[in-house]
Amino acid sequence: MTTSEAPFTEESLKTIVVEQFEIPADRLAEDATLEALGLDSLGLLELLVAIEAQTHKEISTLDLPITPGMPYSEAARVVIQAVADAPVVGAGDLVPE
Amino acid sequence: MNASAEIAVTGIGLVTAAGVGVPDTWRRLCEGTSTAAPDPGLTGLPVPFACRVPAAPVKAAAPGLAWRADPFISFAVAAAREAVTDAGLDQDAWDAPRVAVVIGVGGTTHDHSPATCTAMDKGRFQAIPPTLVPRSAPNMAAGYVGMLLSAQGPTFCTSTACASGATAIGTAALLLRAGMCDIAIAGGSESASPVTSAAFWRMGALSTRTHDPAGASRPFDSERDGFVLGEGAGVLVLERASHARARRARPYALLTGYGATGDAYHATAPHPEGVGAQRAVRAALADAGLSPQDIDHVNAHATSTTLNDRVEARALHGVFGTPPPVTATKSVLGHSLGAAGAIEAAVSALTLRHQLIHPTANLDQPETGIDLDVVTKVPRPQRMRAVATTSFGFGGQNAALVFQGC
């Protein structure tokens, strides 16, 4: 599992997207848009929550420059940068228990 | 009811503890053995067994939904897809605004209750999933079926506790009769969760026969001690018979009668004489233009709770005098709450199609005073023209449906 110490990489993101959101890895390789992958606005929010729970970082979701029409690779770059910039918060604040 | 308003059942979809798809469930019902088993998800709870739907085939039938929707939504989507395919309909070709979706759900699934309560309690609001509302709201079973199957007519949820699925099917028939749609995807769906199990146990409604889960759901039996929690979905495709004929569909049965009543009596107990239940069955018979002796078989609500089965037997005697042969689907599939009435409606249509009544599991010694001809041990072939099915929900909310061969 990725912790706040280990960097959140493209591979970490892929693992979440494939395992939790049941999106086949080859669809990511095709660089489909988030929308085409089934990640609508709610899906993006759920994805960020999943990343927060794993990294113990609080990502500012409101001003994240991501749209559902964006290709996956471009969105991935934005998300990974946002995680790198995000402050670490108290362990457990982002997961219920 | 006049012939032009006859409603045909042209497609069936089932998701139950016996599997995903009509064949698995019908086969298991005819075997007459319970699907109840110890459930790893309920380990440590007062009642650690249930009739749970196998997860993998649901995931295959409704892929990509798990992150955004609770299981009852996936069950409804899987059953609806099967029913629409079974009906020979093509969602890409139909007149979407004329297709209605009515899916009954008893309550929210409580899947996320423990995590959400902890987060709220500790002020960790960031941990509350953004999808919490749309993944668990009862109307979202109909919502996702509409979205994924391109149905844009009246789309809503009926909620009458354990009668929800039957109420949905009856209500869909009314929409068709009123001309508000040409096709209706109608049924019920429910998923079980540890919170649901604990809550029904606390109410004293669940069987605690932990040493023998497979023998725990035993409707009408003298040793019954409560229901076994089940889950699943049943979905029918309904259309006016004239519409079905025009596209050369081969209906399973005609839905000719629907009755709905309220006990106005008690939150959880049925009226002792089953007065509301009797009125529901009589209303369904009147709607179908049939008399009690025209009914060849009753698929009973029969939950296996002490009170319900006794009152239901009394109610059936009240309506029928000598009731026709009865069976209890919940003996095999458990009690799937809001889905049960729809699953049993589907089983009633299959019973007419196959002219075969599936046996009730675990009925070894009927309770003294329950004088019913319950089909047990082996399926009973029988000539049947009309079948009734009963559903009774908490709050005294009753529904009865009548199906006839075609």
UniProtKB/TrEMBL annotation, chain B:
InterPro entries: Beta-ketoacyl_synthase (IPR000794), Ketoacyl_synth_AS (IPR018201), Ketoacyl_synth_C (IPR014031), Ketoacyl_synth_N (IPR014030), PKS_Beta-ketoAc_synthase_dom (IPR020841), Thiolase-like (IPR016039). PANTHER family: BETA KETOACYL-ACYL CARRIER PROTEIN SYNTHASE, POLYKETIDE SYNTHASE-RELATED. Pfam families: ketoacyl-synt, Ketoacyl-synt_C. Belongs to the thiolase-like superfamily. Beta-ketoacyl-ACP synthases family. Residues 4-405 form the Ketosynthase family 3 (KS3) domain. Keywords: Acyltransferase, Transferase. The lineage of its organism: Bacteria, Bacillati, Actinomycetota, Actinomycetes, Kitasatosporales. The keyword rRNA processing does not apply. GO terms for molecular function: 3-oxoacyl-[acyl-carrier-protein] synthase activity. This is Beta-ketoacyl-[acyl-carrier-protein] synthase family protein. CDD domains: KAS_I_II. The keyword Acyltransferase applies. GO terms for biological process: fatty acid biosynthetic process.
